[in-house]
């Protein structure tokens, strides 16, 4: 699996030692050593242990390698997408109360395959995501652990019979019941952590309805008028959208106006917290969506530290259950759809001509642009309101300065009472997440998740390395990949992070992994795509200001050299023709008058200068 839910009972590996999650309080995890019941509970900050690589969600001693989606061929990806469609409704059917057997039978009947095939496809998808459905991949692996299908059935039945009821038993008691059942049938009993993980993956709505009753569930999850359908808990639905901001920016070097920025924003509909953002001078594209989604999944600690702000003021992180977008072409991306399937995110498109479905984020855009109207260089919301105000003349904010202003605006918004939830968005988030009512899902492999989401270009491997953005990248492994390529000028997928293009990631199909390539010019440090574009823009302006008065004169002199060479060739060929004609005449005269000598004129040693204007160059051979 590519995702894991941070909930009590979840097994993690901290510095290669197995631990169990005791409690989740936002970014703080309380863990205890799994092999020692008397070990003290320790607290760790999630963003810190993930970025340092100290915490993993798969045993470091297991040899299984999940198939890399980008390493699959186009044919394999197409087959995987087709097979995924046959099981795509499965999760929704289970979450709405349909029994597993009924759901599988329905899907098998719709797809024209056996129920066993549907069971197998569901298992492969849960194990390795959509890539696990591709044909021709190694589905086994050294030390890979799987539960017997009979044991899975026992777990499912006992959870339904003893846990999804009003008088539910504890997880420890449920484990004991399952263990006795397995021993009676001669099966290997699962561990407590395995059963806890099965419970963690159940729908919160389904569990609440079974244990508290339908009336209590309606009170908690009822969709009231004005509430977005399905936004029952934090990160249940995250809305994405773009807007141009009503302000003109300047570049950092010359403080010259460079245009209006575009803001891509994501908001958690349940709590109204801002999930993530991306600010750019480029028009919205897949890159904008990917960077905004990546900002939302990750912790905001590094961002807030960059602006000397408190990390606790923006506690949102984790994978959303559903992404809600409009029908813009930047959202209609196969790359985005594949990523959502790989990480089990529902991608929903707003119904056409239904602007009310985007009302939550539109109101926030209005709030942010109202703030922009108070800044120097604003374009206001219309020509009428702008009047004769010269936005370019008074503009003084750079992109970095506007970003810092935007982050402070977002944090201010989090602390103000929101009419939609009758409390500050930050308090609404804390009530659900910090109080342990909802546990966020996070990627099991942070590095791989980032690379999976990054935009890419197709490039060949040249002697000087891989060329992108008028720069060159190289690595020691490039030579081996180049020699092993199946065909000359083979195209490779190269991914890049617009926030730091000092390195890129080249897909090595033979090794099923991405290789990191660094800039050949090591004098260039970390630099963003936006910074590089600004540097190119400054260089272009300086080149245009450079005195080019002598440039035309040198071009004219070069053309004169070529014209003289053509004229001299023409004159030389004319002299040779004259000499040849006289020679042939002398030979004929010798035959008619033997013994008479005819003196031939000598060819000139140098070709005389000729009048270029008098020569018709069309007559040249």
Quick overview of this protein structure:
With 621 residues, this protein is α+β, with helices and mostly antiparallel strands. It is 41% helix and 16% strand. The chain has a six-stranded antiparallel beta sheet with strand order 15-18-19-20-17-16, with no helix packed on it. A five-stranded antiparallel beta sheet has the order 5-4-3-2-6.
Describe this structure as you would to a colleague.
By secondary structure, the protein is an alpha+beta fold. It folds into five domains: about 1-60, Roll (SH3 type barrels), CATH 2.30.30; about 65-145, Arc Repressor Mutant, subunit A (Orthogonal Bundle), CATH 1.10.10.60; about 240-445, Nucleotidyltransferase, domain 5, CATH 3.30.420.10; about 455-540, no CATH class; about 550-620. It is about 40% helix and about 15% strand. The protein has 22 helices and 20 strands. The strands form five sheets. A six-stranded antiparallel β-sheet has the order 15-18-19-20-17-16, with no helix packed on it. It has a five-stranded antiparallel β-sheet with strand order 5-4-3-2-6. It is elongated and about 135 Å long.
Binned strand content = 15-25%
Query: What is the CATH top level name of the largest domain?
Result: Alpha Beta
Strand order of the biggest β-sheet: 15-18-19-20-17-16
Q: What does the overall shape look like?
A: elongated
Q: Give the oligomer, counting copies of the same chain as homo and different chains as hetero.
A: single chain
Helix amount: 40-55%
Provide the fold topology.
Blueprint: E1 3-5, E2 11-14, E3 17-25, E4 28-33, E5 42-45, H1 46-51, E6 55-56, H2 74-87, H3 90-95, H4 100-111, H5 115-128, H6 149-163, H7 171-184, H8 192-200, H9 204-212, H10 214-221, E7 238-244, E8 249-250, E9 257-259, E10 262-268, E11 274-280, H11 286-297, H12 301-306, E12 322-325, H13 334-342, E13 346-349, H14 359-372, H15 383-386, H16 391-394, H17 399-414, H18 425-432, E14 441-443, H19 446-453, E15 456-459, E16 466-468, E17 471-474, H20 478-484, E18 492-497, E19 500-508, E20 513-519, H21 529-545, H22 549-592
Parallel strand pairs: 7-12, 12-13
Antiparallel strand pairs: 1-14, 2-3, 2-6, 3-4, 4-5, 7-10, 8-9, 10-11, 15-18, 16-17, 17-20, 18-19, 19-20
Helix pairs in contact: 2-5, 4-5, 6-7, 9-10
């Amino acid at each position: 699996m590519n995702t894991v839910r941070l909930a009590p009972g979840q097994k993690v590996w901290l510095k290669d030692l197995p631990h169990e999650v005791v409690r989740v309080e936002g970014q703080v995890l309380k863990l205890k050593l799994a092999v020692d019941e008397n070990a003290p509970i320790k607290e760790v900050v999630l963003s810190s242990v993930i970025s340092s690589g100290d915490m993993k969600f798969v045993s470091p001693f297991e040899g299984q390698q999940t198939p890399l989606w980008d390493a699959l061929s186009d044919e394999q990806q197409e087959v995987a997408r087709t097979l995924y469609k046959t099981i795509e409704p499965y999760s929704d059917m289970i979450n709405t109360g349909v029994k597993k057997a009924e759901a599988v039978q329905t899907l098998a009947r719709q797809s024209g395959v056996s129920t066993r095939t549907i069971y197998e496809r569901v298992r492969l998808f849960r194990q390795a995501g959509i890539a696990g459905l591709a044909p021709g991949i190694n589905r086994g692996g050294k030390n890979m652990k799987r539960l017997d299908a009979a044991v899975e059935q026992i777990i499912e039945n006992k959870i339904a019979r003893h846990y999804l009821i009003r008088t539910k038993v504890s997880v420890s008691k449920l484990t004991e019941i399952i263990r006795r059942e397995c021993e009676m049938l001669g099966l290997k009993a699962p561990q407590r952590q395995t059963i806890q993980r099965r419970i963690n993956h159940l729908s919160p709505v389904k569990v609440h309805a079974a244990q508290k009753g339908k009336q209590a569930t309606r009170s908690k999850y009822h969709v009231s008028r004005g509430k977005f359908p399905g936004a029952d808990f934090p990160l249940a639905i995250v809305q994405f959208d773009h807007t141009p901001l009503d302000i003109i920016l300047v570049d950092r070097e010359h403080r010259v106006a460079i245009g209006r920025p575009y803001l891509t924003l994501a908001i958690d509909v349940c709590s109204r917290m801002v999930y993530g953002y991306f600010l750019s001078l480029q028009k919205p594209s897949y890159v904008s969506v990917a960077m905004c989604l990546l900002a939302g999944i990750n912790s905001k600690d590094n961002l807030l530290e960059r602006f000397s702000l408190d990390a606790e003021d923006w506690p949102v992180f984790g994978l959303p259950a559903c992404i809600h977008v409009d029908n813009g072409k930047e959202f209609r991306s196969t790359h985005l759809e594949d990523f959502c399937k790989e990480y089990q995110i529902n991608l929903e498109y707003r119904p056409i001509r239904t602007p009310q479905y985007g009302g939550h984020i539109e109101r926030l855009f209005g709030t942010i642009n109202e703030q922009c109207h108070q800044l120097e260089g604003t374009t206001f919301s219309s020509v009428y309101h702008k009047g004769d105000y010269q936005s370019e003349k008074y503009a003084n904010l750079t992109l970095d300065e506007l970003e810092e202003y935007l982050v402070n605006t977002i944090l201010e918004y989090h602390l103000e009472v929101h009419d939609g939830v009758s409390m500050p968005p930050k308090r609404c988030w804390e009530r659900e997440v910090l109080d342990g009512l909802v546990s966020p899902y996070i990627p099991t492999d942070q590095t791989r998740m980032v690379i999976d989401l990054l935009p890419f270009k197709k490039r060949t491997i040249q002697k000087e390395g891989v060329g992108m953005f008028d720069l060159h990248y190289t690595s020691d492994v490039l030579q081996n990949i180049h020699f092993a390529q199946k065909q000359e000028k083979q195209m490779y997928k190269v991914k890049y992070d617009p926030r730091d293009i000092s390195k890129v990631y080249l897909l090595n199909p033979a090794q099923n992994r991405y290789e990191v390539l660094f800039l050949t010019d090591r004098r260039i440090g970390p630099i963003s795509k936006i910074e590089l574009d600004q540097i190119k823009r400054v260089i272009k302006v300086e080149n245009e200001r450079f005195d080019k008065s002598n440039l035309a004169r040198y071009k004219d002199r070069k053309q004169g050299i070529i014209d003289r060479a053509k004229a001299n060739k023409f004159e030389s060929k004319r002299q040779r023709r004259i000499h040849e004609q006289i020679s042939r005449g002398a030979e004929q005269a010798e035959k008619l008058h033997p013994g008479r000598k005819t003196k031939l004129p000598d060819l000139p040693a140098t070709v005389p200068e000729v009048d270029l204007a008098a020569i018709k160059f069309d007559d040249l051979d």
